[in-house]
Design a protein that fits this description.
By secondary structure, the protein is α+β, with helices and mostly antiparallel strands. It is built from 12 helices and 8 strands. The strands form 2 sheets. Strands 2-1-6-5-4-3 form a 6-stranded antiparallel sheet, sandwiched between helices. Strands 7-8 form a two-stranded antiparallel ribbon. Strand 5 and strand 6 form a beta hairpin. Helix 5 packs antiparallel against helix 6.
Length: about 425
């Protein structure tokens, strides 16, 4: 009986192991199909997996693998789930540079130039740009998806279509318009997409804030209530946080524009063109090597022939790009400054209104105090004559009652008028 039970448990464990293996294979197949769908082609480029440790990879914690998307100069996309060490080996950056892109750590907006890469941390846009590829973190984030769409549109090379004309000959047509063609280096186009996206994002947030703030301020001027004041307080807190974010991006661009050496460090294509070809292929032992490095070097050399043949510190092309987006982000900051001034002016107006109401209450209190003093004199006279003490002059003088009452009332009115006249003379109450 004991052996039968043991045999049954063993068979049950074997069946569970087989079922578990099938589920792992099913997960792997779904992941491969999903990644192929995202790349837009069947059997699209996938990250080479280790056949020995393929199952062990599913046992890793979710925090050890990070989601990235790689877009190279030929327009190919690869969705990656790799750890930070693989990224560091591929783009040749230090751990402290990659730590800036950690979404769980609060780092301000930064643009760092390294020997072989540009590290971008612009709000939700966290990317690493090299001379022939760009890696973007968290590609499935709602705010990052539009950036990826723009990268696909701007970084993909123009496709050529062949069509027959009337004579039966081939005609070549490009899918992109001539105005959209750009001969700038790859890293500049990727950097421009990121800057355009973050400037547009911050500008849109500013517009939304303006749409909410102006009606709320107008409503507050019409009716001062605790609900309207609390609403303005929340909007002002949002504006303060947004202003700090915009100010940081502006300061980062201004810092780059003020230093030509920092801008020269962003010319990755010029560095590759001036270095030996062997120095370019040393990185990325884990991934498939990019087949477009040689063609990218020649294209970058043609694109920046003026800077390569001339002065190495010529940063005019990059300076024009940075200046354009610096002006845009500066305009956004000016909008926020105008909005803050409008809020401050409204607060001053509200304070003036409250001071006016407070002054009116003080005037009312002064008038009531004067009336109370006058009635106190009348009460004093009434109290003196109302005492139950036998006095000889009380007898036979009943006819004096009406004169005492009238004269005391006149005295109280006179006291009240004198106090009000003196207060008006001293401008303590309004006319």
């Amino acid at each position: 009986m004991f052996f039968n039970t043991t045999r049954g448990v063993t068979a049950s464990l074997d069946s569970k192991a087989r079922i578990g293996g099938q589920s792992i294979l099913l997960k792997a197949g779904l992941c491969e199909g999903y990644c192929s769908k995202m790349t837009g082609q069947e059997g699209g480029p996938m990250v080479p997996a280790d056949p020995v440790n393929g199952v062990a990879g599913f046992k890793k914690k979710g925090g050890s693998l990070k989601s990235w998307v790689l877009i190279d100069s030929s327009g190919q996309e690869i969705f990656l789930d790799v750890d930070k060490y693989a990224i560091m080996r591929r783009v040749q950056i230090h751990a402290r540079d990659l730590r800036i892109l950690d979404p769980f750590l609060s780092y301000p907006s930064t643009i760092l130039a390294r020997e072989r890469a540009i590290v971008l941390n612009l709000e939700h846009i966290k990317a690493i740009i090299t001379a022939d590829e760009v890696l973007v973190r968290d590609p499935f984030d709602d705010d990052v998806v539009p950036v990826l769409e723009d990268l696909r549109r701007r970084l993909n090379p123009p496709k050529v279509n062949r069509e027959f004309n009337v004579d039966g000959n081939f005609t070549m047509q490009n899918d992109v318009e001539p105005a959209e063609e750009d001969d700038s280096p790859f890293e500049f186009r990727a950097l421009e997409v990121a800057l355009e996206a973050i400037c547009s994002y911050l500008s849109a947030r500013t517009t939304e804030l303006e749409t909410a703030v102006y009606p709320a301020l107008d409503m507050l001027t019409l009716k001062i209530s605790s609900r309207n004041l609390d609403r303005i307080r929340k909007l002002k807190s949002q504006m303060t946080r947004l202003t700090a974010r915009v100010q940081k991006v502006r300061d980062e661009l201004e810092q780059l524009l003020d230093d030509d050496d920092d801008m020269a460090d962003l010319y990755l294509s010029r560095k590759i063109a001036g270095a030996s070809p062997l120095s370019v292929t040393g990185a990325g032992s884990l991934f498939l090597a990019s087949p477009t490095v040689g063609s990218k070097i020649s294209r970058a050399s043609r694109a920046s022939v003026a800077t390569i043949r001339g002065d190495d510190n010529d940063v005019e092309e990059l300076e024009m790009i940075l200046e354009a987006y610096f002006m845009q982000i500066d305009g956004t900051l000016n909008k926020l400054s105008t909005l803050r001034e409008y809020i401050d002016n409204t607060e001053d107006y509200i304070n003036i209104q409250l001071d006016n109401h407070r002054n009116q209450l003080i005037q009312l209190e002064l008038i009531l105090s004067a009336g109370t003093l006058s009635l106190a004199v009348y009460s004093l006279v009434a109290g003196v004559f109302g005492m139950n003490i036998p006095y000889t002059w009380n007898d036979g003088h009943g006819y004096m009652f009406k004169w005492v009452v009238s004269s005391t009332g006149a005295l109280c009115i006179a006291i009240f008028v004198i106090i009000i006249a003196w207060a008006r003379e001293k401008s303590l109450i309004g006319s």
